Amino acid sequence: MRILWISVILLFSAQFLLANEEPIGYIGFINEGEWRIQFNDCTINTFDEAEKFLWFNRNLESISCYAFYNKSNVLTNSKHKNLSLLMKKLIIFYSSPNKFDKAYESYSFRDLTISKNGWGRFPRVYSKSGTDWYKMKEGWIYIENQDKKYIQFYEGQQELNP
User: Fold this and answer.
1) Which tens digit of pLDDT belongs to each residue from 38-91?
2) Which of 19, 43, 77, 159 has its CA 20 to 30 A from that of 100?
3) Phi, psi angle pair for 46, to nearest 5°
4) Rounded to whole angstroms, what are the CA distances from 147 to 4, 21, 29, 124?
5) CA 102 – CA 17 distance, rounded (Å)
6) What is the DSSP letter of 133?
7) Is there a contact between 146 and 96 (Cβ–Cβ < 8 Å)?
8) Contact 23, 134 (CB under 8 A)
9) Which of 7, 10, 25 is nearest to 122 (CA)?
10) pLDDT at 10
């Protein structure tokens, strides 16, 4: 009984600390600065422009004016094979910055928000460990070298003004 009580206290303490933790930055597109992103402005028309959005949400069917599942794209776009690999690779969240502490997998970040008018906020980072571990709302993620062609860490708050 005592162990159960201690476990409950630790669980609530951890949730309280995470809820009160302030973000130190966010994960955004590489070389894009701290500007907010628009998801429905119809400026994205090719796979190369659209691919980076998949890093944040592997379930996207379209972005802006590009449809990932358009039959002509599947049949004629030789890069679609790479796209399929990214879509099949889940985002792995860890309970600590250690690859042996895997917590769960997801197709997207809970902290990625997109308003009805299409403006988006990138997922926030609450802590860092080394150069490749970032604590997100869901847990820790490890940024691999292939991820770095899409995203990077930015310190501070994301600029949300137009």
Assistant:
1) 666 677 788 878 888 888 888 888 877 788 765 554 444 445 555 556 677 889
2) 19
3) -130, 160
4) 40, 26, 10, 17
5) 20
6) E
7) no
8) no
9) 25
10) 44
Which of 5-14, 73-82, 100-109, 129-138 is most confident? 129-138
Average pLDDT over residues 24-29: 92
Hey, what are 66's tokens? Answer: 């590009």
Which residue, 94, 100, 102, is CA-closest to 136?
A: 94
Q: Is the dihedral of CA 39, 40, 44, 46 positive or negative?
A: positive
- Specify whether the backbone of 130 is left (phi greater than 0), alpha (psi in -120 to 50) or beta: left
φ and ψ of 7, to 5 deg: -60, -45
Domain residues of the chain, as ranges? 23-155
Q: What is the mean pLDDT of the chain?
A: 76
With 0-12 CB in 10 A as exposed, 13-18 as middle and 19+ as buried, what is 156?
exposed
Task: Report the phi/psi class of residue 148: left, alpha or beta, with left for phi > 0 and alpha for psi in -120 to 50.
Answer: alpha
